[in-house]
## 1
Amino acid sequence: MSKNPFRYFKTSPEIIQLGVLMYVRFPLSLRNVEDLLHERGIDVCHESVRLWVDRFGTHFADKIRKRRSEAMRRVKQWRWHLDEVFVKIRGETHYLWRAVDHEGEVLEAYVTKKRDKAAALKFLRKAMKRYGNPEVVVTDKCPSYHAAMKVIGNEGRQETGRHLNNRAENSHQPFRRRERAMSRFRRMRSLQKFASMHSSVHNHFNHQRNIERRAGFKSLRDAALREWRELLVV
C-alpha cells in the first residue's frame, strides 16, 4: 500500500490541491493565489503555495499524464505537430521542444540548451515511448527534425509547410502567458518541471468552447473537475 503524500502537512489535501490548481492553471502569481485563498477564508502564506506546487504539482500532473498516455496507446496516432519555443534563462537562450496532437493538446515538453540532432532525437524518442508512433509528423524546416527522424526511420512521415504547423504555434500561447506571470524562469530544471506540469493540467481542463454547445461544454467541464478531485485518492 502506497503512503499518503500529504501525511506531514497540517493543511487539508483539498486546500493544497486547490492552491496547486489556481497557480498552474491560471496566469497568477504566488501572492495572487494567497489573496484568492484568503477571500475563501483560508489563511496561508505565498511560500506555502510555492511548496505545494513544487511538492505536489508533478504528483497530480503525473497521474493525469499516465491516464492520458494509457488511453492514447490503445488507439492509432494520427498526426503530431512538433515545434520548439525559445525561452530565456538568465539571459541565455534555451529550447523548449513540444509535441502537439491534432487537437492542439500538448503531449510532451522537453528542454535543451541546443537545437541539434541529438536534442531532437532524444525528444522524439521520449514522446514516442510514452504515446506511440504517429502516422504523420508535421514540423518546421529545422534540419534537426529531418536528421532525427532519419535515424528513427520516420522520415517518410514528415511533413513541412508554411501554414501546416499553425496548430503547434497557437498552442504556445497559454505557456507564454504563464511565463510572463512568473517573470520568466531562472533554472533549466524549473522550466522543465513547470512546462511538463502546466501542459498536463492545461490539457485536462482545455475544452474547445468554440465547437461545443453550452450544455456539452458544461458537462465536459464538470467531468474534468470531478476527475481532478479524484486524483486525491491515494
## 2
Amino acid sequence: MARVQRPGPSRPLNRPSEQAVDKPVPTAIVAVRKLFAAETPEFFLLLGTTLFLLVFGLVMVLSSSAIQSRIDDGDFFARAARQGLYAVIGLPLLLLASRAPISFWKRWAGWAVILGVVLQLLVFTDLGYETGGNRGWLDLGSFTAQPSELIKLALVIWLPWILVKRAHLLDEWRYVLVPIGPIVAVCVGLVLVGNDLGSASIIILLTLGTLFFAGVRLRHLAVAVAVIAVFAAGVATLSLSRRDRIDAWLSGCVDPNLLGDECWQTVHGWEALAHGGVFGVGLGNSAGKWSWIPEADNDFIFAIIGEELGLVGCLLVLALFVLLAICFVRIIRIARDPFAKIATAAVMTWILGQAFVNIAVVLGVLPVLGVPLPLVSAGGSALLTTMVAIGVVLSFARHRRQSPADDAPVVRSSRIIK
C-alpha cells in the first residue's frame, strides 16, 4: 500500500510590514539619471575634465578681473558674476547637446552656417559695436554676442557633413574646393572685415585640421597653406597696428622704445610669469592684474595663472588640455559613424589649437592675436559655443555604437585613428 505523504504546514504569510515594497523614485532623480546616462567611460572622462576646467576658469576670472571690474563697474565681482551666469547657461546647453542624435547635427549643419553668417553681417549694422579696434560684437540690450564664435561652432558640424557626403571624391581637389572654399572664404572674410585677425586664424586652423583628418591629400593641403600664407602676409600689411605688432614680435620685444606700446602686454606677461616662480605668489595676489596687463582676465589670463599659481598652475592647465586631447582621441576610436569621427577631430583642432595659440601669445612665441583660452578666459560667447561643441562630442561618446540609421560610407582615405 502506497504511503501518502501529508503536506507540511504552510509557511505563514509575511506581514504587510515585512513585505518588500517598491518605493517610487522621484521624477527629478529619474530625469537627472537620464541626462547623464551613457554607456562609455569616455563620456564621463570628457565631461569631468570640462567641468574641472570650467570651475578652474571661473576662479581665475574672479581673481584676474577683480581690479579692472572695480574700475569699470564699481564692483569687484561684476565680471566674475557675468562669467558665472554664462557658465550656468552653458551647462544645460552642453547637457542638452549631449542628448542629441547624430541625425540632428547632420540635419541642421547647413542652417547653422547660414545663421552664423547672417549674425556676422549684423555686426556691420547699428546692432554692432567696436571694442579694442575690432568690430565683431553685437549689442543685444542686456547682453552682447560675438558671432564669429558661432561660425566656429557651425563649421565643426558643417565641414564633416560635407566631407562625408563627398567621401569618394576627396582625391579630386575641385570637389573639395567647392563648396568648402567659398563658404570658408566668406566666413573668414566677414571676420577680417571686422579686423578680428585672431578669430579668422582659428577658423582657418579649424578648417585645415578638419580637412587633414578627413583624408584630403597632403599636396592639396600644402597648396592651400601656401595660398593662405600669401594672403595672410597681404592682410598683415594692410593694417599699421598689425605691422607694428609683428615687427615688435620679430624683434623679440627687446627694443625699449616698444615697451610702452606693442610689447606692453607681452613684456608684462613675462614679468608676471617670472614673478610667479615655481609655486606662485598665491591666489589673488597678482601684481600684473593691477592694470599692468591689459585683458588680464581674457587673452592674458595664462600670465595671471603663472603669477598666482606658478609653474605648477601652468603645468596643471597644460595637463588638463592634454587630458582633453586624450578624451577626444578615445572618442574618435570608439565612434562608428565617419561624421562623428571627423566632427570630433574638428572640435579637437578648434579647442586645442586655440589653447596653443593663446599660450604661445603669452609666451611670446606668436604675435598678439587676441584669442581667449578655451573654458578658462572670460567671454560669454566663447564659453557658450565651446561648451556646446563639447556637448556635440559628448553626444557621440554617449553610445559606443550608433544606430543603423546614422551609418554612412566609410571615408576611404581618412587619417582618423581606426
## 3
Amino acid sequence: MEEQLEQSKRRLHFCMALIGGWFGAYAILHFHHFASAVTVNFIEVFTSAVQENWIKALLRLGIVILYGFTIFLAACLSKRCKGDLRMWAILSDAAAACVLSVLPEHLSELGVYICIFAMGFQWCVFAGKYGYPCSTIFSTNNLRQFVDAWVQAHLFRDSDHIPRMNLYGGTLLAFHAGVIAECVLWAMGWGSCTILPVLLPAVLALVWQRRDFRMRERIEEAFEPHHTA
C-alpha cells in the first residue's frame, strides 16, 4: 500500500505541475504578464517607479503584497485547519479558472491578481516531493536541479541522483505540457475559454488527492494497534 501511496502522490504532483504551466501560459497570453513569478513583479515595482508609471508600480506592489498574504494564509491554515489543504489548493485553481473564463477584458489586472492568488496558494501547498523543493508553478530551480542530477547520474555514474533527476525531469515535462496545451487552444482561437479545460486535470488531481488521503488513513489504522500495544 505504501508503494501505491507514493505513486498516487507522484501523479498528483505532476498533475499540479501541468496546471501550473497552464495558468502560467494563460497569464502571459491573456494578460501579457507571468503572474506566477513574484521576482518580476518586485522588480517592476521599482522599474515602473523610475519610469514614473505610478499606476503600474502600485498594481505590481499590490501583487507582491497579495503574494505575501497568500503565503501567510497558507502557513496559518496549515497549522489551524484539520482538513487536507491540497484539496483546497486544487479547488482554488478550479474556481480561478472558472472566473477567468468569464472575466471582462477591461478587468485584466484583476485577472492577474486571481492568477497570483491561485498559483501562490498552490506553490505553498505543493512545495516539493521526496524532501526536495520542487515548484509546480515555475521552472527555474527545477531546470537547475534536473541538469545537475542528470550530470551526477549519467556522467559520474551516481545512481543516488536518479530519483531526483526523475522528479525534476517529470515536473518539467508536466509543466510544459500544460504550457503547450494552453498555447494550442489559444492558437485555435478559444480566447478566454482556453483556461477552462484545466478543470480536467483539476478533477484528476482531486481523485488522486482523495485516494491518497484514504490510503494514508488505512496505513495509520494498520499501525495504530502496534502503537497502542
